[in-house]
Each structure stands twice: as C-alpha cells, then as structure tokens.
C-alpha cells in the first residue's frame, strides 16, 4: 500500500507550451498532458510544505502521437538534508505506452525524505525538443501513526 503525494505538491516547470499547463500531469486525466516549450533539457519541480517520504515516482506516457515528444531519459533529483540537490534515480525508457515506475531510495535502500523533487528530462525519442508528460504519481509508504507520549512533570 502506498500514499499518493502528488496533490500535496506545488508544481512548476522550466517551460510550458500554451494549452498544456503543468497541472495536467496531476489531474488524473490520461487524455491531458503537460508540454514543454523549447530545447532540452526540461525540468518539472514538485515542492512540499514539509519533508515527505517518497519511495516511487511513476510516469504515464503514450506513443499515440509523434515519438519525438516522448521523453526517454528521466533523472530524478531530491533536496537533501544538507541543503543540496542530489541525484536519486535515472531511467532510460523503452518505447512502450503506459506507466513506468522508478524507485526512489537512499543508498541504504530506505525511501527518501525530501521537500523538493526535480524531474529532469534529458532527451526524447527521435531527438525531439519539446516533451510531453501525461501523468506523474509520487508515492510513499503508509506508516502507522505513533501516539504522542504525554509528558508528565513532577512538582519541582
């Protein structure tokens, strides 16, 4: 079981082509998409109010139109505890439509904790410049809530 974090993020993009805004990537509508405007590389940034625990990012792609708009290399960066952005995952995609899943893990194998996630699109199939992303999913584990301990103080 996972918790979906995409609706908790404030999303932005390096560029956006008119008519295909960034909110299309999290609207749960597989017929809409975000489209960049300009030369590669492109980036999509998700900012959270507090650090969240993420274990997977997923992308929905389609090849219904021209392949040159479909990203084939994604690199994921996350804001670290030390104030820098660190690479946490890279994936070169195959030519197939549907959901593609990338694990987000620290070197220890545990999920990442971050307040900023950057999705970098390094290239498209057929050397296209503009990129299209239909949907993004950001998932993290569901953790049981630990009841807060009530502090008891003795008289001083």
Characterize the structure shown.
This protein is an all-beta fold and 156 residues long. It has a single domain, classed as Jelly Rolls, CATH 2.60.120.260. The chain is built from no helices and 11 strands. It has strands at 2-4, 10-13, 34-35, 42-54, 56-61, 71-79, 85-92, 98-103, 112-124, 132-133, 135-141. Strands 2-4-9-6-7 form a 5-stranded antiparallel sheet, with no helix packed on it. β6 (71-79) and β7 form a beta hairpin. The radius of gyration is 18 Å and the shape is globular. Residues 1-156 form the DOC domain. Belongs to the APC10 family.
Write the layout of secondary structure elements.
Blueprint: E1 2-4, E2 10-13, E3 34-35, E4 42-54, E5 56-61, E6 71-79, E7 85-92, E8 98-103, E9 112-124, E10 132-133, E11 135-141
Antiparallel strand pairs: 1-11, 2-4, 3-10, 4-9, 5-8, 5-11, 6-7, 6-9
And the CATH topology? Jelly Rolls
Mean pLDDT over the residues: 86
What is the SS-derived class? mainly beta
Count of structural domains: 1
**Low-pLDDT regions:** none
What strand order characterises the main sheet?
2-4-9-6-7
Q: Could you tell me the strand content as a percent range?
A: over 45%
- What are the secondary-structure elements, in order, as H or E? EEEEEEEEEEE
Q: What's the level 1 CATH class?
A: Mainly Beta
The CATH H-level superfamily is Galactose-binding domain-like
How many helical stretches?
Answer: 0
Using only C-alpha atoms, the radius of gyration works out to 18 Å
Strand count = 11
The percent range for helix content is: under 10%
Task: Summarize the main sheet.
Answer: 5 strands, antiparallel
- Cα separation of the termini: 47 Å
| Overall body shape | globular
Per CATH, the architecture is Sandwich
Pfam families: ANAPC10
Keywords: Cell cycle, Cell division, Mitosis, Ubl conjugation pathway
Domain DOC: 1-156
Family: Belongs to the APC10 family.
